[in-house]
Amino acid sequence: LRVLGAGFPRTGTKSLRAALSYLYRGQPVYHYQSMFELGLRYVQRHMPLWMDAHVSGTTKHYDELLMGCAGAVDFPVALPALFFNIADKYPDAKVVLTVRDPETWYKSVSDTIYRFDKRLAPTWLNWIGVGNFHLACTMSSLMIWGEGGCFDGRFEDKQFAISVYLRHIEEVKRRIPPERLLIFDVTQHGWPELCAFLGVPEVPPGAFPNDNTSAEFSKMIDTFESVATFLPILAASLLVLCGYLGRLLFATYITTDVLSSAL
User: Which of 10, 21, 34, 249 is the most exposed place for a label (fewest CB within 10 A)?
Assistant: First the structure.
């Protein structure tokens, strides 16, 4: 493991992930979305391990969770309750702290991942556990949004949420030695700063990645909401249709039976 991302979501973590993967020739870089990208088996295996690490404080799962990865960014790695244990376990990994204006960060989180999790939790997809939505909601509530999580059930208190964000930044600066730490603002920094810090001699051509913008995320949420709304309506319509066809077939059978008896 060469690089740890200490930054909260919506600070450019997915852009950093893309950059690290490019620099390390396609080696995996762990991100919250990795569990879903790797498939259902990884969701079912990884999420319970992350939750156990959060509850018990154990570090025994990290070798399995981060196996083969050149880097690890975003939540759950960057959660304050986990990050410093991970940083201590992998002392040779350099740390990139992605940062963003606090007000802009809060708005971005509110409009994207928080909106998505709030919309996901009450849906029938969560209730019946389709695609392990229930497991994802449980993990997010336990470790991020709910009481005892990163924002302790108070994310909608803007000043409190921003204070959690800023406190984490200051704690990273205090606990990670300067020679091991790069403070990285994706609106101001790019390939030269990252490559110099990581000791990569050749700066890649082209612009620094700009992945997972708020507009892209909002579009994904809109698609999910359409599916979550449309599928129950479709299922109900099919049930009604099946009921109608069943009654029609039964009536046809009875009529045929009566006519056969009369003949």
Answer: 249
Full DSSP string of 88-122: HHSTTSEEEEE---HHHHHHHHHHTHHHHHHHHTT
Q: Which is more confident, 130 or 110?
A: 110
Whether pLDDT at 138 is above 90: no
Q: CB–CB of 119/221 below 8 Å? A: yes
DSSP alpha helix (H) spans, the chain: 13-23, 34-38, 40-56, 62-65, 80-89, 102-111, 113-120, 124-128, 133-140, 158-175, 191-198, 214-262
- CA separation (Å) from 132 to 88, 94, 217? 31, 33, 20
pTM of the model: 0.80
CA angle 134, 135, 137 (to 5 degrees): 65
| 236-260 pLDDT, tens digit each | 556 655 665 666 665 564 555 544 5
Give me the pLDDT at residue 209, please: 94
Which amino acid would we find at residue 227? Answer: V
* C-alpha distance from residue 143 to each of 61, 62, 68, 92, 207 (Å): 16, 16, 24, 26, 34
State the amino acid at position 211 in one-letter form. Answer: D
Q: Are the C-beta atoms of 156 and 166 separated by less than 8 Å?
A: no
User: Given this model, what pLDDT does residue 211 score?
Assistant: 79
